[in-house]
Amino acid sequence: MLEARELSFQFSPGVSLLQAVSLTLSAGQWVGLSGDSGAGKSTLGKLLAGYVTPQAGHISLDGEALPSRGLQPVQWLPQSPELAVNPRWRVGKILREAWAPSNAQCQAFGIQPGWLSRFPHALSGGELQRVCVLRALAPGVRFLIADEISTMLDPITQLELWQALKQEAEKRQLGVLVISHDTALLERLCPQRYHLHDGQLTSWSAE
Amino acid sequence: MSEAQPRLRAALSLGVTTLLVLGLVASQWLLGDSAQQMQFDARLAPPSLNHWLGTDALGRELWARTLAGLALSFWVGCLAALLSTLIALSLAALATLSPRLDALVSLVIDTLLSVPHLILLMLIAFALGGGTQAVIIAVAITHWPRLARVLRAELLQLRQAPYVLISQALGKSRWFVLHAHLLPHLIPHCLVGALLLFPHAILHEAALTFLGFGLSPSQPAIGVLLAEAMRYLSGGYWWLGVFPGLALLMMVLSFERLSNHLRRAL
Amino acid sequence: MLTIDQLSLQLPVYASWWKREWTTCLDKLSLHFSAGEVHAVVGASGAGKSLLAYAMMGLLPTPARLNGQLYYQGSPLDRPRQRQLRGRELALIPQSLNALDPLVRTQRQVAWAAQRSGQPSKSARHAAQLALDHYQLDARAQQAYAHELSGGMARRVLTAMAHVSQAQLVIADEPSVGLDPHQRQRVLAALRELADQGKTVILITHDLRHALPIADRVTIMRHGKQVETAAASAFQGNGDSLTAVYSQALWQALPDNSFSIRGTRKAQQDIQKEANVA
């Protein structure tokens, strides 16, 4: 179980972004997080993945602190896949940076064998995003922070990406935090949903 | 050419420059010691069929001396540019380690850039006692800051790139991130930087030698040739200055063009 | 207003260091944009939407092969005419917010845009002021530099610039990317308003759902080809009034609709077949 307790974060003194935010994410659970831009959704995601350290509060995984080095059990997926890959590497090398997915897994994510020898700029945003998602699913990864990963995608590509991730997450009991300002999407994906406003989390359900 | 092809141009430029350099290197074998051979019956002869570019005050063939001078300048330029790039790269890498080191490196860069090149060059060359080695070191020490500044900025930006952060989160070591993600990205910068430094280095070597702080007068460097030519200019012996000067200009321009084309193509 | 006739575009791609190949980015597009309309051009990334905008503005990168014809108000629109009309009759609201001059305050930036359309500087300043007030940019935003503006404000500044330039044709390239719902609505409403004033607005976006409320007609693009042009009202229910399988699938895949594609495997085959025929 990934547990954040009383997290506070501010960029500069006096300008508080998050105020004592608590959130838990258990294995196999899908949690949605909405909020206006600038509300701190991304920052909360980065805090949970250990990219940023909070000024107060702490994050624990099964009661222990996140490891400081080695493969992180909580992986962060950013919005634009173009920035998340080394432009000088071929897609095959990018995909296998941490682990070697099987052919069946590639197929499940709709990754064509022909892509692997290409460079990332020869792939579309949706194709590259699928590569990034599969890359983050290394054995040992238990939680995913998906930060607006389908915002730049057209509806069909978006649907295919979530379907593939849903299947894999079910198989491995991954916990997923979906960050998006698309409330309709969150309603489709996540039984549990929160809204971040003025540094506070509130739970919401469909209207 | 209505459809611009940067890569084709870069390749052409690379071909031409390589040919020039190969020709220069090959000519040194064919020359033997003709650059030093004196002909007392043909002193200060103007350009003619027998003496292609004329001769100097001791009857030495100017074409042979120009070629020898170019070759010498080429090596000095090469070594100085290489050394400069190495200094720039290591200091830029050092600057990324801690904010304090970064401030120090930035201070050194700014200080060096605020002092006129030539004065610093003369001081260093003079302190090291002149000669080829001193010139190379002096040119290398004075030319790295510009490149170092570019590389430092590039590295600082790159370290925050999502793919670098993700690589760390995927459990990759610092060393892996450095040599697999960061350094390869800098190679084109270094290559273009070194090529841009090269003509500078040659010009400054010539300037230093011309002013008497560089190579010894016994070496047929372009700077030495030009300094000698000054003494005979008023006598109307124009070829002594014009040909070595043109040769230097050609070499510098061809490298300048090459680096510009490469920068566009990479 | 603006007519595109059999427009094709090829751009060079380096297959290796030497081999340069021409890939087709736009494939025989024929479209008509009329005055007083918001015409949305919708497609996945890589469908060639932005390139279409650049082709209309005459802003394509230099090694490009462009075939076909553009007509603006009945007469051919070639490069010199594009250059002459750009910033006067034709305006582009670019995708990148870097298009704002970082050294100039908002107010002057908008005034410059007005001046470029040929107004004397005094009335240009006046027009700029009106436009800034109209788009609800407060005094602080008017005195701000580009980096001090939020994404939504910057888009509204760009829209205000298109507004004061008195352009008859406004092309907005992904105007809602990176904005929260509130700001997105404001920006889109501003575009709708331009159309209601009798201008032609071309809305280029990957976001079908948010384009629909303000669009009159929608063109769906895929791999540089035109899949379908339909009235915005055709996108309703389960999309049966749409003719192309791809546009139906696009509509159904939206989270607010069924968030699924009927008979996915079959639909994919049909989409492929459709692409081959076109």
Automatic annotation (TrEMBL), chain A:
The keyword Nucleotide-binding applies. It comes from the Bacteria. PROSITE patterns: ABC_TRANSPORTER_1, ABC_TRANSPORTER_2. The keyword Translocase does not apply. Keywords: ATP-binding, Nucleotide-binding, Transport. One of its GO terms (molecular function) is ATP hydrolysis activity. Pfam families: ABC_tran (PF00005). GO terms for biological process: transmembrane transport. This is Nickel ABC transporter ATP-binding protein. It comes from Halovibrio variabilis.
UniProtKB/TrEMBL annotation, chain B:
Keywords: Cell membrane, Membrane, Transmembrane, Transmembrane helix, Transport. It is a multi-pass membrane protein. It comes from Halovibrio variabilis. Residues 70-259 form the ABC transmembrane type-1 domain. This is ABC transporter permease. InterPro entries: BP-dependent_transpt_permease, MetI-like, MetI-like_sf. Belongs to the binding-protein-dependent transport system permease family. GO terms for cellular component: plasma membrane. Pfam families: BPD_transp_1. GO terms for biological process: transmembrane transport. It is found in: Cell membrane. The chain crosses the membrane at residues 72-97, 118-141, 190-216, 236-255. It comes from the Bacteria. The keyword Transcription does not apply.
TrEMBL record, chain C:
It is found in: Cell inner membrane. One of its GO terms (cellular component) is plasma membrane. It catalyses: Ni(2+)(out) + ATP + H2O = Ni(2+)(in) + ADP + phosphate + H(+). GO terms for molecular function: ABC-type nickel transporter activity; ATP binding; ATP hydrolysis activity. SMART domains: AAA. Its EC number is 7.2.2.11. It is a peripheral membrane protein. Residues 2-248 form the ABC transporter domain. InterPro entries: AAA+_ATPase, ABC_Ni/Peptide_Import, ABC_transporter-like_ATP-bd, P-loop_NTPase. PROSITE patterns: ABC_TRANSPORTER_2. It is an enzyme of class 7 (translocase). Keywords: ATP-binding, Cell membrane, Ion transport, Membrane, Nucleotide-binding, Translocase, Transport. The keyword Nucleotide-binding applies. Belongs to the ABC transporter superfamily. The complex is composed of two ATP-binding proteins (NikD and NikE), two transmembrane proteins (NikB and NikC) and a solute-binding protein (NikA). This is Nickel import system ATP-binding protein NikD.
